[in-house]
Amino acid sequence: MLDNQGFNLWAQEYDGSVRCSDENNRYPFAGYQDIMDEIFRRVLSAPGRDILDIGFGTGVLTARLYEQGCRIFGQDFSSAMIELAQQKMPEAILVQGNFAQGLAVPLRQNRYDAILATYSLHHLTDAQKVSFLHDLLSCLREGGCLYIGDVAFTTRRELEACRAKAGDSWDDDEIYFVFDELKSSFPTMQFEPFSYCSGLLSLKK
Fold first, then answer.
1. Which residues fall within 8 angstroms of residue 129, CB to CB, at 6 or more apart?
2. Does the pLDDT value for residue 167 go beyond 50?
């Protein structure tokens, strides 16, 4: 698993790596752009423009929302990613922090119309995911929605099939979402697959 320094080193090449994986329908980013486009559409079709992005990276999605007049708040643990994103969104409130330690204190003071987490929460254990998602839900305004776009599967069997297909490229340090195993903690969660290795999970408040 990459640490803060690892992500700092990857920051300049990140977008290109993602695009190559997506365009070639390869794990882990197959379906990436379609997920980003769908979240963008859903956020703008709902009322409210206060958006929190957990793990915004270089700001690929949030910069688009920023250009549409959304007020952007975010947390990422890479200082280099934050620097790149801040250049695109000079008025955004971007905070450095490790997701494993929860939501950064400055971001807990606000309530948001939508919370986004794209390709970021697979660094948490399943137990940490459940706890963190409950914390994020408490920061949503009534009627708001939490969107999670990531490497995700409906069942454990689908995950194992993807692991076999990926072979040596599979990242054993990452812990991916399995919808069937999350439903007991979040009965109202919805899941929409976007490729054989990705999907969009959503939770409304």
1. 121, 175, 177, 182
2. yes
